[in-house]
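Please check this record.
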Amino acid sequence: MPDPDKYQNRIELLQGTLDMLILRTLQWGPQHGHGIGMAISTLSEDALQIDHGSLYPALHRLERQGWIDAEWKTTENKQRAKYYRLTRSGKRQLLVAESKWSRLIDAIARVRKPARG
């Protein structure tokens, strides 16, 4: 039986957020899918756990949109894996997504703590 406390502090991602996180992770260089998921988890101090059932469909969608490219390579563990890299179009999309995200954060902050006047 799964441990219910394990997921107590887990943060659910808003639609589109996973795409932005993947693009941001790939900005630092090519990575295979598992590595992308681990990077997101590590950088979020385990608050964001991306399961493969969400990660790989997102990677395929981003590839179809031309925001990432992929090629098969051998990992450090001598296994074949698909490595993803950010395209020029993906870099532009990352800027758009992060701008939208910043506006959303600002709007939520204004609702949470309205200006008193």
User: Anything to note?
Assistant: Strands lie at 31-32, 68-74, 80-86. The chain has a mean pLDDT of 89.
